């Protein structure tokens, strides 16, 4: 039985081998398609022909042909062909795959056997290459070109860079490798100083596309080597002019060039550019440099024909111009108060460091004197400091001090600071709005009298360690009605701002405002405390949020309360208040209460407080205790009265005679008297 079963299983396997052997598959079935490469989405027609006499395992039965596209069955038609063949035709109206295998199958012993296959690819003609550009490298005179290939065609595409001389046929200059969109044409295929035609050709099974043809002289697209800066010096001394010497690279020595020079100081936001420098080597002169300033210089060149590419910028060279004594006046601000029984004046003087154009180098320090310099002699200094603030004492009645800055080259002219009284008219109005996350716009209404200038003071609340106690700036335009302040401004911090109008003979009384450059929700909400409670009211109190945690102006507090039935109520409280009474509560009920602090930019909830209302109010409890006390007193009073008053006592507790003392108690019947006890 085992041998018979093994023999039965062996026969189908042997027939399958005969069907799929080279003599069977290759000679038994053939698959033909109209085209192995088609446009994506187009129709495909295929046919499968089975020669039954060559398929030894199929001779005895009917041949049934089916189709599969990859692993999906598709339906075709079948007919008998010439010479005893079986033919199946298949039409796919829309082929939407980029690559697939079409299988011809026959059914044998209840299973499908693949006997033929055709591989089909679909895609698009190649896209037109664009943005072709080329650069000639003078080190090896190779022409490197790059382009944009365009959309993927989904088909194998060959790309080549073609070039042709004025009288030569087109040749393949180079072929990009690894799917790149760039390659280099070697020197032997180039014609320098002559026009050449260059383009990109992309070809696949569906067509060919070419880029726009680029007609260039390779030397016109040469990228030169950068020049070298040799020396920089000031000319003549003590002026703002410099002379710079340079020379071109050796590979560019035979060309006429035009060059550009750029320079900037570390503080400059952009480069200053000098154009129109002609020549192969030489010097160039430039004026307008700041004194005592370090500059960074670079240079680049290209062919003077104004074609081709600029070289890379040369290696940088630094140069520091010579210093000069500071110039200009210093912005100063002060406060003064009497001291020493009115014989001294305590002065706090502050000033701004000179601007770069006025500093003329690195400022080494500042001097404050009580009199100006006369006949080249410096008066004694009450302050000699490297800071921009000085506290000193001056004799009472001092109305002027003199401030000067100095560097290694000299001392500036003294700035006269007049200590005016603060009694002038104030501004008509003041407000501040955000100018950005780290700036504030301060706007004011001009005072009735014309002002010569304005001083703005601001300080963070609360004062942060390591920051100016009162930052300030001066607006010298008396017609100004706004100023932007940036120094020390940070988001989510409050700043108190004061503005002083400056008059010719006095300082105006300041007016004040507060502002934030940016607001957000408070860092936390206050903690609620229960101050008192009754059966229908609960008084709550809280401590205000500290200024540094408010992150903005508190616009309101909102109190929320809810009982166990989730009946939520709320009330909005003015931010100036720190207590609130919740009314109309239910007696003997548990409530959850919390507070929310809000700014214009958001809100923050506090922790929850649990409270239980009483059964009675305090007045009701007092009335109950009073009633009980009155009842108790009345009872005591009645007891005393009963005890003292016999008539009343007789009415409530009458006297009852003792039966033992009655005549009936002493009476004995006659019969009982004659009986004698034994």
TrEMBL record:
It is a single-pass type I membrane protein. The keyword Transmembrane helix applies. One of its GO terms (cellular component) is plasma membrane. PROSITE patterns: FN3 (PS50853), HEMATOPO_REC_L_F2 (PS01353), IG_LIKE (PS50835), PROKAR_LIPOPROTEIN (PS51257). One of its GO terms (molecular function) is cytokine receptor activity. Residues 1-27 form the signal peptide. Keywords: Disulfide bond, Glycoprotein, Immunoglobulin domain, Membrane, Receptor, Repeat, Signal, Transmembrane, Transmembrane helix. Residues 12-105 form the Ig-like domain. It comes from the Eukaryota. The keyword Cell inner membrane does not apply. The chain crosses the membrane at residues 623-642. It is found in: Membrane. Pfam families: fn3, Lep_receptor_Ig. Residues 226-324, 522-618 form the Fibronectin type-III domain. CDD domains: FN3. InterPro entries: FN3_dom (IPR003961), FN3_sf (IPR036116), Hematopoietin_rcpt_Gp130_CS (IPR003529), Ig-like_dom (IPR007110), Ig-like_dom_sf (IPR036179), Ig-like_fold (IPR013783), IgC2-like_lig-bd (IPR010457), Type1_Cytokine_Rcpt_Type2 (IPR052672). Belongs to the type I cytokine receptor family. Type 2 subfamily. This is CSF3R factor. The gene is Csf3r.
């Amino acid at each position: 039985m085992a041998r018979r079963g093994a023999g039965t299983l062996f026969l189908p396997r042997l027939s399958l081998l005969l069907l799929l052997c080279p003599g069977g598959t290759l000679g038994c079935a053939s698959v033909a398609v109209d085209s192995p490469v088609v446009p994506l989405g187009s129709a495909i027609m295929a046919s499968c022909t089975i020669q039954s006499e060559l398929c030894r395992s199929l001779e005895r039965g009917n041949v049934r042909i089916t189709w599969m596209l990859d692993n999906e069955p598709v339906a075709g038609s079948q007919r008998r062909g010439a010479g005893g063949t079986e033919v199946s035709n298949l039409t796919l109206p829309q082929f939407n795959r980029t690559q697939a295998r079409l299988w011809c199958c026959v059914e044998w012993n209840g299973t499908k056997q693949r006997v033929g296959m055709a591989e089909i690819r679909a895609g698009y003609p190649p896209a037109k290459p664009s943005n072709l550009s080329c650069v000639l490298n003078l080190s090896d005179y190779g022409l490197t070109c790059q382009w944009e290939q365009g959309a993927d065609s989904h088909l194998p595409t060959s790309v080549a860079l073609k070039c042709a001389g004025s009288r030569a046929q087109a040749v393949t200059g180079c072929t990009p490798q690894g799917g790149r969109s760039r390659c280099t044409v070697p020197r032997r295929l180039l014609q320098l100083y002559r026009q050449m035609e260059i383009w990109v050709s992309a070809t696949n099974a569906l067509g060919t596309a070419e880029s726009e043809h680029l007609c260039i002289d390779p030397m016109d697209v040469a990228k030169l080597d950068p020049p070298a800066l040799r020396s920089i010096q000031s000319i003549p001394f003590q002026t703002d002019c410099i002379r710079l010497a340079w020379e071109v690279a050796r590979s560019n020595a035979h060309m006429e060039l035009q060059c550009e020079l750029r320079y900037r100081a570390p503080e400059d936001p952009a480069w200053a550019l000098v154009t129109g420098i002609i020549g192969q080597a030489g010097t160039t002169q430039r004026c307008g440099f700041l004194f005592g300033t370090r500059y960074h210089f670079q240079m680049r060149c290209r062919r003077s024909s104004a074609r081709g590419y600029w070289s890379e910028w040369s290696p940088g060279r630094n140069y520091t111009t010579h210093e000069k004594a500071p110039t200009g006046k210093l912005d100063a601000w002060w406060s003064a108060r009497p001291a020493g029984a009115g014989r001294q004046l305590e002065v706090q003087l502050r000033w701004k460091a000179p601007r770069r154009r006025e500093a003329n180098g690195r400022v080494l320090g500042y001097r404050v004197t009580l009199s100006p310099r006369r006949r080249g002699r410096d008066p004694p200094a009450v302050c000699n400091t490297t800071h921009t603030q000085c506290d000193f004492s001056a004799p009472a009645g001092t109305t002027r001090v003199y401030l000067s800055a100095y560097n290694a080259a000299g001392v500036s002219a003294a700035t006269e600071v007049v200590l005016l009284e603060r009694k002038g008219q104030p501004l008509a109005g003041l407000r501040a709005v955000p100018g950005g996350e780290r700036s504030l716009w301060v706007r004011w209404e001009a005072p009735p009298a014309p002002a010569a200038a304005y001083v703005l003071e601001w300080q963070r609340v609360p004062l942060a360690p390591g920051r100016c106690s009162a930052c300030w700036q001066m607006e010298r335009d008396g017609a100004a009605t706004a100023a932007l302040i940036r120094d020390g401004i940070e988001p989510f911090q409050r700043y108190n701002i004061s503005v002083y109008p400056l008059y010719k003979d006095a300082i105006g009384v300041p007016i004040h405002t507060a502002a934030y450059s940016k607001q957000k929700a408070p860092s936390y909400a206050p903690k609620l405390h229960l101050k008192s409670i009754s059966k229908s009211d609960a008084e709550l109190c809280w401590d205000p949020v500290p200024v540094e945690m408010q992150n903005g102006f508190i616009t309101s507090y909102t109190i929320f309360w809810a009982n166990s039935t989730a009946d939520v109520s709320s009330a909005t409280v003015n931010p100036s208040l720190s207590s609130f009474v919740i009314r109309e509560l239910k007696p003997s009920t548990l409530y959850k209460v919390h507070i929310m602090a809000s700014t214009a930019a958001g809100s923050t909830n506090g922790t929850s407080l649990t409270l239980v209302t009483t059964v009675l109010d305090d007045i009701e409890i007092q009335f109950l205790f009073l009633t009980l006390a009155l009842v108790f007193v009345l009872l005591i009073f009645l007891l005393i009265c009963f005890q003292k008053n016999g008539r009343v006592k007789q009415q409530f507790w009458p006297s009852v005679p003792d039966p033992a003392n009655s005549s009936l108690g002493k009476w004995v019947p006659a019969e009982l008297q004659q009986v004698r006890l034994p």
